[in-house]
Design goal:
CATH architecture of the largest domain: Alpha-Beta Complex
Protein name: NAD(+) diphosphatase
Number of strands: 15
Radius of gyration: 22 Å
GO molecular function: metal ion binding; NADH pyrophosphatase activity
Shape: globular
Catalytic activity: a 5'-end NAD(+)-phospho-ribonucleoside in mRNA + H2O = a 5'-end phospho-adenosine-phospho-ribonucleoside in mRNA + beta-nicotinamide D-ribonucleotide + 2 H(+)
CATH superfamily of the largest domain: Nucleoside Triphosphate Pyrophosphohydrolase
CATH class of the largest domain: Alpha Beta
Number of helices: 8
Keywords: Hydrolase, Magnesium, Metal-binding, NAD
CATH topology of the largest domain: Nucleoside Triphosphate Pyrophosphohydrolase
Strand order of the largest sheet: 1-4-5-2-3-6
Family: Belongs to the Nudix hydrolase family. NudC subfamily.
Distance between the termini: 28 Å
Structural class: alpha+beta
Order of helices and strands: HEHEEEEHEHHEEEEEEHEEEHH
Length: 315
């Protein structure tokens, strides 16, 4: 498989809904001790409330960015940065995420106003897609890292919400992202390999993917995961692009790879995670119609499949 040109890689990345952004994260401002005092006193600041992994939406195509006064005073806050675009708000507008408890969320909005980014990502502007992705990723980390791993004491939020500190020994805990590879595997006939996960309905198929293990390169992870899940051995992993996937904390790293003609292995699902595997030509994939459900358009999996196909595939 030939290496991709920078132009091809940029074009692929432009098609990833959650990789879009028009926000400067303004990391130096995180050092200010009075950051939230100043921001939350400014009516021009906009806050994105987050509750149980969902963001506050205005319909299906825009976030509901509220004024500071609309957010409970004791909500946990994270500074997201400043807008670099002029949309409905001027460039330079400061954005803050507010991680709400159940009680706080009920005081802010009704339950049907909280939206799932995975479902609505493709309809959002680049600014809103980037804000929601950043906000969900960092607030998911806050929700899952409440106590010190050393002392068990509640961690204190500092530096704009991007560092948590143990109050006893001052140990700092930083956000973590879990890298995962996802791979478009093709054979000598340029057929694409798709698998069905044990947790999905039987006719849902996607690319094979898995987390990168400690001490492992991305290329090694591609070869190991594909063999473990399918019995197929691949060579020549080619990087396509990446997309954050804050459900709850992944970074999906997209690859293409080809079956090793000298040692192809034997196609067989692992039976635990993957229960079915199928090779598809382009004509076979389209002819399958509703009998094969493909990944949603917010995912990098869909972008890789359509990159192989050569154009968008109608739902």
């Amino acid at each position: 498989m030939p290496a991709r040109s920078p132009e091809d890689q940029a074009s692929f990345t432009d098609r990833l809904p959650l990789s879009r952004h028009t926000v400067d994260r303004d990391y130096l401002a995180r050092e200010r001790d009075d950051l939230f005092t100043v921001l939350m006193a400014d009516a021009a600041t906009r806050v994105l409330p987050v509750w149980k992994g969902r963001a506050l939406f205005r319909g299906e195509t825009a976030l509901n960015l509220v004024e500071p006064a609309a957010v409970p005073a004791d909500a946990r806050l994270v500074y997201l940065g400043r807008s670099t675009s002029d949309d409905d708000l001027p460039a330079g507008t400061a954005f803050v995420a507010a991680l709400l408890t159940d009680e706080q969320a009920s005081s802010v909005a009704s339950e049907d106003e909280w939206g799932n980014l995975r479902m609505f990502a493709t309809g959002l502007s680049a600014r809103d897609a980037g804000l929601a992705t950043e906000a969900l990723a960092i607030t998911n980390w806050h929700a899952s890292h409440r106590f010190s791993p050393r002392t068990g004491k509640p961690l204190l939020s500092t530096k704009g919400g991007w560092v948590l500190v143990d109050p006893d020994d001052g140990h700092e805990v930083f956000p973590r992202t879990d890298p995962a590879i996802i791979v478009g595997v093709t054979d000598a006939d340029d057929r694409l390999l798709l698998g069905s996960n044990a947790m999905w309905e039987k006719n849902r198929y996607s690319l094979l993917a898995g987390f990168v293990e400690p001490g492992e390169s991305l290329e090694q992870a591609v070869q190991r995961e594909i063999f473990e899940e399918s019995g197929v051995r691949v060579v020549d992993p080619v990087y396509l692009g990446s997309q954050p996937w804050p459900f709850p904390a992944s970074l999906m790293l997209g690859f293409r790879a080809t079956v090793d003609v000298d040692d192809p292995g034997s196609l067989e699902p692992d039976g635990a995670e993957i229960v079915d595997l199928r090779w598809f030509t382009r004509d076979e994939l389209i002819a399958a119609g509703d009998s094969v459900i493909l990944p949603g358009r917010s995912s990098i999996a869909r972008a890789i499949i359509e990159d192989w196909y050569g154009s968008e595939i109608d739902d």
